[in-house]
Automatic annotation (TrEMBL):
Residues 65-357 form the Glucose/Sorbosone dehydrogenase domain. This is PQQ-dependent sugar dehydrogenase. InterPro entries: 6-blade_b-propeller_TolB-like, Glc/Sorbosone_DH, Quinoprot_gluc/sorb_DH_b-prop. Gene3D superfamilies: TolB, C-terminal domain. Residues 16-43 are annotated as: Disordered.
Amino acid sequence: MVSALALAGCTSGDSVVVNTPDAESSTSALAPETSGSTDPDASTNGYSGFWAVADAQPETLATGLESPWSVIPYRDGYLVSQRDDGEIVYVDADGSQTAIGEVEGVVSGGESGLHGLALLDDGGQTYLYAYHGAEDDNRVVRMTLDELELGASESIVTGIPRANTHNGGRIHFGPDGYLYISTGDAQQRHAAQDRDSLAGKILRVDAEGNAAPDNPFDNLVYSLGHRNVQGFAWTSDGIMWASEFGQNTWDELNVIEAGGNYGWPTVEGIAGEEGFIDPRIQWSPSEASPSGMAAKGDTLFLATLRGQQLWVIDTAAGEVGGKPVEFVPEGVPARIRDAGIDSDGSLLILTNNTDGRGSPSDEDDRLLRIELTEA
């Protein structure tokens, strides 16, 4: 099952490898059927089928953002996290920007600072969740959000190892109502294989930060063996996908299952080694270095930093439908940090040229929107 876009624009070459497991080795990755509050930022957005980019020319929603890391729709606009100064910026529908406050306790440095955002509406009270670097760790906090008034920060998960690099940082509420948190190995390579460490994992907690009751190891850990996951999303069939930075050889796109071991640091990329789950796609880091990811229906939109493009990937029942498609927005030579789905179903793109590794222009960084069409 491949979209019209994929049929028209398949990528060739050995630097992008699609792995299609046989039926015996393939495992189910459906989200557990559990109860919990749902989240306006979460999961599948109510869409199905395959989606393609309607026009390569994006609409600019905001310019002049400083080291932006995450974007989520809110009210008639967008909330953007800025990594280095710890600010939450609200971008209105007319493009005006309002700094609604700094998240308390953010300590920036290297690749750490203010990272992912997620929203939860709980009985009429809106909470904003954030992942950020603190003095000695990475942590997840929540704050009340009334209109544009940001409340005090309450830590719900602490003790996630932090380092100059490999800090993970993406958070989303899943279709099951639980909060999923991606962490990096924080340069502690072998901690990724330690079930009792929070490094190199995807965590799954309730709204207060407690372990989800059916987590596979009776702790916060949902999956392990990750080097640095900065993007994940659910397609319309409830399957969870995650993007992962490799070291020098392969970046990865994985199907995530409860208790799954994704191999780092023992293996990188498609290894075929017993006990580890191979990625569905692997890329050379020069073509990817993947960060945020969004899903609409059964199509994934993967933001890349070194690749400076989006990869558009059709999926079906946990498999990839043909080669992924490269998409480069016109007039936007940029590292792309995050991708999201707007409330109207269009695609949001957050550039990242001002994080110290890009080459910023006068307007960087930018929040962009691109229309999608059913394929």
